[in-house]
Amino acid sequence: MKNYLKNITLGAALLVLAGGCTDKFEEYNTNQYQIHEADPSTLMKSMIETIVNIQQNDSQMMDQMVGQLGGYLCCSNTWSGTNFGTFNPSDAWIASPWNTSFQKIYGNFFQIQEATNSTGHYYAFACMIRAITMLRVADCYGPMPYSQVKKGNFYVAYDSQEDVYKHILEDLGNAASVLYNYYVSTSGYAPLGSNDPVFNGDYSKWAKLANSMRLRVAIRISDTWPDMAKEAAEAAVSDPAGLIETNVDNAMMDCGTQTNPYQLAAVSWGDLRVNANIVDYMNAYNDPRMPKYFNKSTMAGKTDQYVGMRTGDSNFAKGDAAAFSTPAITGTDKLMVFCAAETAFLRAEGILRGWKVGDKKAKEYYETGIRLSMEQYSVSGDEYLAIDKAPTVSHASDNVQRAAASISNTVSVKWDDSDNSLTGKNFQRIITQKWIANYPLGLEAWAEYRRTGYPELYPCIDNLSTHGVSSTRGMRRLSFPYTERQNNTANYEQGVAELGGADNEATDLKWAKKN
Length: 515
Description:
Order of helices and strands: HHHHEHHHHHEHEHHHEHHHEEHHHH
Shape: globular
Largest sheet: 2 strands, antiparallel
Radius of gyration: 22 Å
Structural class: mainly alpha
Distance between the termini: 36 Å
Strand content: under 5%
Helix content: 40-55%
């Protein structure tokens, strides 16, 4: 890992970032054509880059290291033996997703909040970005400060898990409305312009993303807080701004002058390979997207194959691991934030739940999700949709890991018209195909695996947990940062009490699958 993050006191960093506030933001919100000394879009740009990390070290610490728990990628470096894959990460690494997200969001957020008096499209946009970024934090840790965080006072009381998601949904819903109305009233004026690396300032597309994210959050909490989830999902689908439903509206982050962090970690650093779970599932289905997702291995005798690396191996040489397949990502490729296929899969599950999230049957949304994903990668899905046999997913022993494994709890691709329950195979089909389509969004995959138990993943090879993490279920959350224990002690203890279990990686969040 290059230029590893130094330990910086979060409070000091935020106070520095929060300074230098302009007094002309009210003009920005009312007269968008006027030239000003400070451009608020420059404050937004660095915030936007936190919803899927562009910065190489942040991406490695969060989207890659923690994200590998979702079964897409695998870290091919041992870093002295304290790793997420073996369930024994260091305290500093566990703290990174929390502290980095707070540090990078709140400096600019406080400036915008103060200067706009918490009104207008810039503030709604900032709240939306905070909601998307902090959703990732909440999905990792559980209770956290959200509604009470203020400038100069971010060591505050934790919101309960229910309240965190409630406030995130409120911020996303408000943003969808404000941004879409602004877009309509200004005939499509884009105040962020080229400083927006996702939609080039198009507020109508950001409003669609806000609604799609609402649907994602609603599905996440659907078993635990069903009334709140149903209301949010139906509101998102009926919102006039719409959803991300076609691939031209996919949210894709342009890395700009920076190298795509996945390509950098895999090729330049040799720290990243594709995970055996996603490779072996796609091999079992003979998935036509494989050449778009993976490069073939350089392993002797297997250069014509895609060979993934199993996570949780505590004893391998980095040089030997180089032979496993790498992600088929170039240095200039964009980072996926949200794709149309996911919207279709979310609606399919919503229909199974009896929600009013579309006028089609669950089967139609499910098949649409597969077709959209195939279209996204320019391949055909007709034969794929006809697969009516559940394969056995297996991993062969190789010269590096010698860790054969198999999974039989799988499903066919073809929909079963006789199954319309949330406990049947069609539900498992939805989650499995959404998981494949969402590659390489590792944090999202880890969250959905914990919520549903699907798709079944290979067990950890070497379980080095000292907190009772199950080799088969895997890590269930991240412990609260040591910086919270030290600097926010009373509120930290309140957060642990709300968690309902020990502050360690074996404790389930309230929406996670209990099995």
